[in-house]
Write a structure and sequence with these properties.
Layout lengths: L3 E5 L2 E11 L5 E13 L2 E11 L4
Antiparallel strand pairs: 1-2, 2-3, 3-4
């Protein structure tokens, strides 16, 4: 689940951070933002954005 959710009208925006691990144990840290548009209680459109994040 995302860290933050913003809902307004037909739109739901979710953003947060994810960690992906390869079989060799190497990890990649990314931030994401998904924008969902609903119509008649169904998903009509989704746009997803992902960027590599720096480890702090």
């Amino acid at each position: 689940m995302g860290d933050n959710l913003i809902a307004e009208g037909q739109f739901l925006t979710v953003f947060g951070d994810i960690t992906l691990k390869y079989e060799d144990g190497k990890a990649i840290y990314q931030s994401y933002c998904d924008v969902w548009r609903f119509y008649s209680s169904k998903i009509a459109e989704i746009k997803a954005f992902v960027i590599n994040a720096e480890v702090k």
